[in-house]
Amino acid sequence: xxxxxxxxxxxxxxxxxxxxxxxxxxxxxxxxxxxxxxxxxxxxxxxxxxxxxxxxxxxxxxxxxxxxxxxxxxxxxxxxxxxxxxxxxxxxxxxxxxxxxxxxxxxxxxxxxxxxxxxxxxxxxxxxxxxxxxxxxxxxxxxxxxxxxxxxxxxxxxxxxxxxxxxxxxxxxxxxxxxxxxxxxxxxxxxxxxxxxxxxxxxxxxxxxxxxxxxxxxxxxxxxxxxxxxxxxxxxxxxxx
Length: 241
Hints:
Layout: E1 3-9, E2 18-24, E3 30-36, H1 44-62, H2 68-87, E4 97-102, E5 106-112, E6 116-121, E7 124-128, H3 134-140, E8 172-173, E9 177-178, E10 183-188, H4 190-193, H5 198-206, H6 211-223, E11 234-240
Antiparallel strand pairs: 1-11, 2-3, 3-4, 4-5, 5-8, 5-9, 6-7, 6-10, 10-11
Helix pairs in contact: 1-2, 5-6
């Protein structure tokens, strides 16, 4: 049984530059899509909305094709670049993009930017997407521990996004995960995962009976975080199988 719930809030900002959607065609085929427009560029909300809507349209038309995820990323990139050119906004329309695809046999995860997708099996976090950010690069080099990413001064500096000209393959697609019972997935923007750490993700999942209950429990952590004076937009898609 597929159970999912989505939340997207503007936090303390004037505009919500996050965009999320789901395309659940039936119990076998579904797509969950999340994007975070780059703040400070003026048109981040437009970029994220374009990317999500374009990816969703491609999915609905080609969902049974083996390379549908690749098509979704490529189409989102081309559409954002097209509108950038049309509006003379090459510097101000960029976004992250995360995609979770479900088929009868397996589950696929793809991303670009620093929004994250977590893969959880029987309450244990198996892996997460690899941030395309300066702090993640520093972790990879061994210069800082991973726990320093959340509060690093350069945490908003991204190395790869939709809306920036790509040289080679810029998005990443993880190896497929076999579809079976007791799997959970969490797609979230940095305004969410910076305040909700992995321990909280596991704990709230353990005590939740539905995707909505899980997502709401984590949202409470974000809302009640007193250390964050000016909360960013935050979005989450909780998926349970």
